TrEMBL record:
<dbReference type="InterPro" id="IPR048465">
    <property type="entry name" value="Maestro-like_HEAT"/>
</dbReference>
<feature type="compositionally biased region" description="Pro residues">
    <location>
        <begin position="1"/>
        <end position="14"/>
    </location>
</feature>
<feature type="domain" description="MROH2B-like HEAT-repeats">
    <location>
        <begin position="195"/>
        <end position="345"/>
    </location>
</feature>
<dbReference type="InterPro" id="IPR016024">
    <property type="entry name" value="ARM-type_fold"/>
</dbReference>
<dbReference type="Pfam" id="PF23210">
    <property type="entry name" value="HEAT_Maestro_2"/>
</dbReference>
<dbReference type="Pfam" id="PF21047">
    <property type="entry name" value="HEAT_Maestro"/>
</dbReference>
<protein>
    <submittedName>
        <fullName>Maestro heat like repeat family member 8</fullName>
    </submittedName>
</protein>
<feature type="compositionally biased region" description="Basic residues">
    <location>
        <begin position="54"/>
        <end position="69"/>
    </location>
</feature>
<feature type="region of interest" description="Disordered">
    <location>
        <begin position="1"/>
        <end position="109"/>
    </location>
</feature>
<dbReference type="GO" id="GO:0005737">
    <property type="term" value="C:cytoplasm"/>
</dbReference>
<keyword id="KW-0677">Repeat</keyword>
<dbReference type="InterPro" id="IPR055408">
    <property type="entry name" value="HEAT_MROH2B-like"/>
</dbReference>
<dbReference type="Pfam" id="PF23227">
    <property type="entry name" value="HEAT_MROH2B_C"/>
</dbReference>
<feature type="domain" description="Maestro-like HEAT-repeats">
    <location>
        <begin position="369"/>
        <end position="602"/>
    </location>
</feature>
<feature type="domain" description="Maestro/Maestro-like HEAT-repeats">
    <location>
        <begin position="791"/>
        <end position="1049"/>
    </location>
</feature>
<dbReference type="InterPro" id="IPR011989">
    <property type="entry name" value="ARM-like"/>
</dbReference>
<dbReference type="InterPro" id="IPR045206">
    <property type="entry name" value="Maestro_heat-like_prot"/>
</dbReference>
Length: 1074
């Protein structure tokens, strides 16, 4: 078994030299270093030794260059490191010796332009990374236990950059520079000269400073940085003028042209910052002005034109002292060194986090050369960080998932150079991640980490390192086992957020596929699901490629289909303005989920809506109710969840009908819209909660193939009825009957659903449910319902304070009575029904009469007699239908009286004759006809044969002779004629003219047949008084009829008592017994 390769050895970032350039001179105080090494003062050596540094005896230090380990020199015997670039890249990007990359251009610069210079020693160790990554936990534990093993000992630091004397600082135009000896360099005079020269620059006008003066200032700062650990004056000066230094550096960088590179000032700024960074003087972190300086430095470097463009500018405007190509390469090299110097000692990854935040937008730049430079810089930083990694808690870097996502996307970048830089970054990032996870994971979770590493090892065994880093999908698959839930969320959000800036279709496709793969594999480990969905909603409008749009929407489908996230995703999607915009509507319509999950999604939406219906009615409707209704409409339109729609049809239909009831006459101003939801968006006046509910209900019927029911609703204006405040229940009844007629299977499902729902929710919820339930009682299936769920519930509604429930209860009883088996259970409700005959609501009275008509044949005598009295009291009711049906029920009652009970109701029947006779003259033809019909029934009950004139339809005042015949008949048949006359007088006050006129005619003519003894006892004055009162009636015909009747009454009252004649006495004697 081959030995796993070690953790890659990364050269350290550029470090400042701590000795002056004195090749022949030795210090009188030798150091404990090996024999032959340059001598160092003991205090200086101890300072270095305490920091883990030693003086170098190597003749020439190598530089940390922009080139990667593929082109760097390594120790003898070391295997070449892993190479991520194409062969074509190497000669183009690695021209020249690594050790002289910075020396060469500076050698070409005039000596007056470079006062002092120094090099960085880059030590090397074995860097053979071409095999698979070492993921053995035991090796990792050894690394953590012994962090010093990451430090490469035995390397030396060499100084070849001298200080400058005061004379050189003052003679800025001189080309002669004197190199200072070791003793001179640390003299107080030289230090004071440097400080004075810097202070003079502070107080000068930067805009009139020459390039040479700017360079001298920057290099003087660098020289002072070397003395910083040993001189308190220098330390005090530097720390006391940080703000001035930052301000001047900002101005120097700002004055440099953004579109050209003809001056080394920018690079010297980087060198100065680097030198100070190694002395723990950070000019780029902390206050706002430092952050602004850092941002400006990165922008001014990354946004420089490409090397080709700068070369063309050089041809137009030669720089003279330095070739453009060398200066260009040198500037980016020093920029990279500067970034690395910030992370050499970064145990908490705080500095690295700041660097990543500044580089983030450039890694996603749409310009190739900017993206390439940012990727190269990050690769060098990660390489340096990996080499010097010595992590300590607490860690400040919390964006691992974001960084991994950026690198994975860049690994698939269409520009090869960018992909190669990202591949190398990922290589080092994996090693950093393993160490980071080992430190941050709790000891209890070590087995989980061990398992994750084992998974990584197994995956890496299938392909080589080069293949691994060339495939973004494999990279994502490795990292997904290492990232925690929060980091996975960062990964997804970063890729989604990057879609808006990606111009290449291939990168779009890669991002979409990466998201799909990751979400499918680790979907149960997400926690920040709302954030992911939020980014999707925000970025969807910016994605135009159909396949990528579908992939992104599929991510939402995957998340919403998992029960763990369903509520979370739905809640977030509902928190958007209605009606939903094109993108959100497309998301709802194109949801692709497995069949078992479709029901869950619709049921969760229903639950959101039903929760609002179960709460007491509020002043404003909950916004979630409107949003959920619109969401259901969009889902129905997409028709992707059709099977679930059929399965949940009863719940969906009833919930939407209830929502319609709640939405009647509401506007969006009466909806409790969450603050800030619409912002500056204006709401159309046509948008109402009702329109969402109606369109959702229509779509549901169409998608579930209820075309006939939909047609019935349209033809009978059912949708308008549903939307009406006073006729909503009529619309509900129409739809219920349509379903019962055309689709009884669905109707029966709804019936069983409604049984437990009738007592839930608020008043509107109960009313709509009850209205639908009552209509379904017509179905034969209703006979199977236990009485506790049907008759008992209807009985409760009969005593409800709301008349609508009473109407529904009576309607339900009317339907149930049609089922013969259920009639017996309703007999106990007869007293309640009879009491309802006194209600003022016409519908209640009519329904009660209709029910009694069906039960009249099964009533006992006492109930029947009581009901006849109730009906008689309703004769002449101002409500024509009540009047008509009361007579109908009275006639049915008369016919239902058994022979043995006839005597008990005979008087009631006799009392009804005159009212029925007079109502036959009613102006309402239906009432008149029904009166004649019931009068006939009563006559048959009394075994009378009415004269034919009773059935004439002409008014009595047209032909009084007909009234004479009728009165003569009743005069012969009836006794106590005065009582009949008194009953007729009560109709004088009837509101209807035909009835009053008929009553007057009847009184005038019938008075002829009064009994003399009765007439003598009571007289006629009471009759005359009532008639005279009618003379005030404004109707002329009444004047005539009343006058005639009054004369007739007076005539009857004035006639003498007839004398007994002989003939009469003889007849009387003959009748006596002998």
């Amino acid at each position: 078994t081959p030995t796993p390769p070690q953790v890659p050895c990364i050269p350290p970032a550029r470090q400042p030299s701590l000795r002056l350039w004195t090749p022949e001179r030795r210090s009188p105080c030798p150091s404990p270093a090996e024999e032959g090494d340059p001598a160092w003062p003991a205090p200086e050596w101890r300072t270095l030794a305490s920091r883990g540094r030693w003086p170098s005896r190597r003749g020439h230090a190598q530089h940390l260059t922009r080139r990667r380990h593929s082109s760097e020199q390594v120790q003898e015997g070391s295997a070449p490191p892993a190479d991520f670039r194409s062969e074509k890249w190497l000669p183009e990007r690695a021209g020249g010796d690594a050790g002289n990359s910075r020396q060469a251009p500076r050698a070409e610069m005039a000596s007056r332009d470079r006062i002092c210079s120094w090099d960085v020693v880059v030590p090397y160790a074995s860097d053979s990374d071409s095999g698979s990554v070492d993921l053995q936990l035991s090796n990792l534990e050894d690394i953590i236990k012994g962090p010093s093993s990451l430090e490469f000992t035995g390397f030396r630091l060499r100084k070849d950059r001298p200080f400058i004397s005061k004379s050189h600082c003052t003679q800025l135009g001189s080309d002669k520079f004197r190199y200072l000896t070791h003793d001179d360099a640390f003299s107080e005079a030289n230090i004071e000269n440097l400080i004075e020269s810097i202070q003079e620059f502070f107080h000068g006008e930067l805009k009139i400073q020459s390039e040479h003066e700017k360079l001298t200032y920057l290099r003087s700062l660098s020289s002072l940085s070397r003395i910083l650990p040993y001189d308190e004056t220098t330390e005090s000066f530097i720390h006391g003028h940080i703000a001035d230094i930052v301000h001047i550096l900002y101005i120097l960088v700002e004055e440099e042209p953004l579109h050209s590179l003809f001056s080394p000032v920018r690079q010297e700024v980087f060198v100065t910052i680097t030198d100070l960074s190694y002395q723990d003087v950070h000019l780029l972190f902390g206050s706002e002005d430092r952050v602004n300086l850092f941002s400006l430095i990165i922008k001014s470097t990354i946004t420089l034109p490409s090397e080709k463009t700068l070369t063309q500018l050089q041809e137009i405007k030669p720089s003279g002292s330095c070739k453009s190509e060398c200066l260009y390469r040198q500037t980016f090299q020093v920029f990279s060194e500067m970034l690395q110097s910030l992370v050499v000692r970064d145990p908490h990854l705080e500095n690295f986090d700041i660097i990543l935040k500044h580089m983030d937008p450039w890694l996603q730049s749409i310009k190739d050369h900017e993206r390439e430079r940012a990727a190269a810089s990050i690769a060098q930083v990660l390489k340096c960080l990996c080499m010097h990694l010595n992590l300590k808690l607490p860690l400040r870097f919390q964006r691992l998932g974001h960084l991994v996502a950026l690198m994975v996307l860049l690994c698939g970048d269409p520009l090869n150079e960018v992909a190669e830089e990202a591949a190398e970054s990922t290589y080092y990032l994996l090693h950093i991640t393993l160490r980071l996870k080992y430190i941050t994971e709790d000891k209890k979770n070590r087995p989980i980490l061990r398992g994750a590493m084992k998974n990584c090892q197994e995956l890496l065994e299938f392909y080589s390192i080069k293949q691994f880093y060339a495939c973004p999908f494999k990279i994502a698959k490795i990292f997904e086992v290492l990232l925690d839930s929060n980091e996975l969320c960062q990964f997804v959000v970063t890729i989604l957020d990057g879609l808006k800036n990606l111009e290449h279709s291939c990168t779009h496709q890669l991002a979409g596929e990466l998201l799909m793969s990751l979400v499918e594999n680790v979907e149960f480990r997400f926690e920040e699901v709302p954030e992911i969905v939020g980014v999707i909603c925000a970025q969807l409008s910016m994605i135009s490629q159909p396949s990528v749009r579908q992939q992104v929407i599929t991510i939402v489908s995957l998340l919403i289909s998992r029960p763990k996230y369903t509520d979370t995703v739905i809640s977030y999607l509902l928190y958007h303005p209605v009606p939903y915009d094109r993108n959100l509507a497309e998301m709802w319509r194109t949801l692709k989920v497995e069949v078992p999950s479709t029901t869950g999604i619709l049921s969760r939406l229903l639950r959101k809506l039903q929760t609002c219906h179960n709460e007491p009615t509020q002043e404003k409707m909950a916004y979630v109710a409107v949003a959920a209704t619109d969401a259901l409409y969009e889902v129905f339109m997409g028709n992707k969840l059709q099977e679930a729609m059929f399965q949940l049809f009863p719940q969906l239909l009833m919930t939407l009908l209830i929502q319609i009831h709640h939405s009647i006459d509401l506007t969006m101003s009466e909806v409790a819209i969450p603050p800030g939801l619409y912002k500056e968006q204006e709401m159309s006046s046509k948008v109402t909660p009702l329109c969402f509910a109606i369109q959702a209900t229509k779509t549901l019927l169409l998608r579930t193939l209820c075309f006939q029911e939909f047609n019935i609703m349209e033809k009978n204006e059912g949708w308008a009825l549903l939307a009406g405040k006073d006729c909503h229940l009529q619309g509900v009844s129409l739809l219920a009957n349509a379903l019962l007629e055309r689709n009884h299977v669905l109707a029966h499902k709804i019936l069983y659903l409604l049984v437990p729902l009738l007592n839930r929710g608020n008043a509107k919820h109960k009313l709509t449910s009850a209205g639908f339930f009552v209509e379904l009682l017509q179905s034969p299936v209703a006979r199977r319902l236990p009485s506790i769920y049907s008759i008992a519930r209807l009985k409760d509604w009969l005593h409800h304070g709301n008349n609508i429930f009473k109407i529904l209860a009576l309607t339900g009883l009317y339907y149930i009575i049609r089922h013969q088996k259920m009639r017996e259970d309703i007999q106990s409700l007869l007293p309640c029904i009879l009491d309802l005959l006194c209600e003022s609501d016409e519908k209640i009275v009519l329904l009660a009469i209709q029910i009694l008509l069906l039960l009249v044949r099964t009533m006992d005598f006492s109930t029947l007699a009581a009901m006849m009295r109730k009906m008689f009291s309703l004769f002449g009711d101002v409500r024509p239908n009540v009047h008509c049906f009361s007579m109908t029920l009275f006639g049915a009652s008369v016919k239902s009286v058994k022979y043995a009970d006839k005597k008990g109701v005979e008087n009631q029947v006799l009392d009804s004759l005159l009212p029925l006779l007079l109502y036959s003259q009613d102006e309402n033809d239906a009432v008149a006809e029904e009166s004649r019909r019931i009068l006939t029934i009563c006559a048959q009950f009394l075994k009378w044969k009415l004269p034919q004139q009773v059935y004439y339809k002409d008014p009595w005042y047209i032909n009084p002779s007909e009234v004479e015949t009728i009165c003569k008949f009743f005069g012969k048949k009836c006794q106590e004629k005065v009582n009949i006359l008194a009953q007729a007088l009560t109709f004088f006050k009837n509101a209807k003219l035909p009835i009053r006129r008929a009553a007057v005619l009847f009184v005038g003519i019938f008075s002829k047949y009064l009994d003399r003894n009765e007439l003598k006892t009571k007289g006629t004055k009471w009759i005359e008084d009532d008639l005279r009162h009618l003379l005030r009636d404004p109707e002329p015909s009444m004047h005539i009829v009343v006058s005639q009747a009054l004369l007739q009454i007076q005539k009857v009252g004035a006639e003498p008592e007839p004398e007994q004649t002989v003939c009469g006495l003889r007849k009387l004697m003959c009748c006596l017994p002998t």
